[in-house]
Amino acid sequence: MNETSPSPQPELPQPESTPPVSRRGLLLALREFLRNPWAIVVLLLVLLLAWQWYDEHSRMSALREELATRLRDSDADSRDARLVARQAQEAVREAQTRLGQLDSKLAESQNQQVALEALYQELSRNRDEWALAEVDQILTIASQQLQLAGNVQAAVAALQTADQRLARADRPQFIPLRKVIARDLDRLKVTPNPDIAGLALKIDQLITAVDTLPLAGDERIAASARTPAAALPDGFWARLGAEVWNEFKSLIRIQVTDRPEPGLIAPSQVFFLRENLKLRLLNARLALLSHDESTFREDVKTASAWLANWFDTRSRATQAAQTTLRQMSASAIQIELPTIGDSLNAVRNYKVARDRAR
After folding, report:
1. Where are the beta strands (DSSP E) in the chain?
2. Is position 314 within any domain?
3. Is the dihedral of CA 40, 46, 51, 52 positive or negative?
């Protein structure tokens, strides 16, 4: 294989080197340029434009920096606002939860209040019923005491107790009842009140003293026991004559008295005499309590007559018993007593009207 020699390359012309511009030439060119007034105007315009560009560039840089700062501040504020918004949302949710709990508690408290009001009304009605029942019972007992025993003081105390019970209830609807009770109370206070209890106590004392009252026969025995025996003289005939004379004097007794001779009773009948006298006094006591004035006076009169006939009227105990019987015989035990039917009817009518209103 034949080797071919490379063909010779044509030589390229070398560029001519430009001579460097000298400083003097620049100065001359600048001087020539400044001599032209339009060139100065152009130069001033160029400088003014450069200054404006620099100033605008500075302003834009400051504006960008300020905008960046504000954007950073805005981002921080936005983050804070989002944090505050989340906290506010959490607070709102918590407040809503609490509000729901409060609503439920409020509803529960309202239900409890309604239940309490209903319970209070029920208790109030029951308390009024208890008060009326208690007053009715008190007035019934007072009426029985007044009609059966004629005990005005017990009836007055019962009416006062009933009025105080209604006053403690402090109910305006009880005012008419209290007015009726006050009228009955005023009528009872002006009613003459015989001392039935005092008379009954005196009769009891007489019954107790019957066993200790001396009898009229006891007076004779005591008088004979108090007569001293005459001294017998010395000598047979003198003593015999004195004994005969004493026996003769015992056969005849002369007594001057200003009252009837009391009756004699056998010792075996003394017990029955005292017991019958007690029974008479007990009958007088029963007649006193039942306000049977005729029976009471008859029994007192009979007891006084028995004391005069069978008991020693010279004894102080017998005289005191007779004085007590005379005082009781002069006492009036039959008095027209008022009733408290108005108060009873008012209470019972109010209870009936209350039951119908339910």
Report:
1. none
2. yes
3. positive
Nearest to 353 by CA among 184, 128, 144: 128
User: What is the residue whose two structure tokens read 């294989």?
Assistant: 1
Which residue pairs from 219-223 have beta carbons closer than 8 angstroms and sit at least 24 positions apart in sequence?
Answer: 219/262, 219/312, 219/314
Tell me if 296 sits within 8 A of 288, measured CB to CB. Answer: yes
Higher pLDDT, 262 or 270: 270
Answer yes or no: is 174 within a domain: yes
Instruction: Note down the domain range covering 128.
Output: 105-192+340-357
100, 117, 151: which is the final residue of a domain? 100
The angle that helices 37-144 and 152-169 make with each other, rounded to 10 degrees, is 170
* Same domain as 140, residue 115: yes
CA distance 124 to 174: 13
Confidence check: pLDDT of 11 > 70:
no
The pTM is what? 0.44
48 assigned to some structural domain = yes
Contact 139, 340 (CB under 8 A): yes
> Do 340 and 184 meet the contact criterion of CB atoms below 8 Å apart?
yes
- Which tokens sit at 181? 């009770």
pLDDT of 218: 62
Burial class (CB in 10 A: 0-12, 13-18, 19+), 306: middle
Into how many domains does the chain fold? 3
Length of the chain: 358
Structure tokens of 302?
């009979």
Question: What's the pLDDT band for 277 if we cut at 50, 70, 90?
Answer: very high
182-186 contacts, C-beta under 8 A, 24 or more apart: 183/342, 184/159, 184/338, 184/340, 184/342, 184/343, 185/156, 185/159, 185/160
pLDDT in the model for residue 301: 93
Distance CA 216, CA 309 (A): 8
